[in-house]
Design goal:
It is a single chain. The chain contains five helices and seven strands; from the N terminus they run E-H-H-H-E-E-E-H-E-H-E-E. By secondary structure, it is of the alpha+beta class. It has a domain of about 110 residues: Aminopeptidase (3-Layer(aba) Sandwich). The protein has a seven-stranded mixed beta sheet with strand order 1-2-3-4-5-7-6. Strand 6 and strand 7 form a beta hairpin.
């Protein structure tokens, strides 16, 4: 498995993974609206040039995951917008490998000692994956997200690095 930076050429693959508004909200929060467009991605990147999207793939072949390393909103890197793309690929440990690759990239880029992420409290598969990757809940810290009439609570998790 390899990790590389997202390029505009990856948009069609990413967009094919996002099958409905609920999935987009689960993985992207309120940042984007369904249907996702190339312009939304480009506008987001222009607004946040210090944040970097990543793609995971098997041996330079078809991508299988998308994620973001966010800096600037807290004093340490945070993982965001994590998605194992194809529904058939989920639940097979690929998310765990992807998260670990992103954590390693955070450590390489920022020499940090802590990495954070937010996860919706009803995202049971995500919670399990992040706990397997060494993330723990950051006390009882929570953030509420609202999109239209839908409101969801995200838990804050952190991983301490050696």
């Amino acid at each position: 498995m390899d990790l590389r930076k997202y390029t505009d050429d990856d948009f069609n693959v990413l967009n094919s993974w996002i099958t409905d508004a609920d999935l987009l909200f689960q993985f992207a929060g309120t940042a984007w609206t369904f249907p996702l467009t190339r312009k939304q991605m480009q506008d987001y990147q222009a607004l946040h040039p210090d944040r970097q999207f990543y793609i995971a793939h098997h041996d330079h072949q078809q991508p299988f995951a998308f994620g973001e390393i966010i800096i600037g909103d807290i004093n340490t890197p945070r993982l965001g917008r994590l998605l194992v793309g194809e529904k058939e690929s989920r639940g097979k440990g690929l998310g765990l490998h992807f998260v670990n690759m992103l954590v390693k990239e955070c450590k390489r880029l920022f020499s940090c000692h802590t990495v954070y992420l937010y996860v919706f409290e009803d995202n049971i598969a995500g919670l399990r994956c992040y706990q397997k990757a060494g993330f723990e809940f950051d006390n009882d810290k929570k953030i509420n997200f609202t999109l239209g009439e839908k409101s969801r609570t995200a838990l804050i998790m952190k991983r301490l690095l050696a």
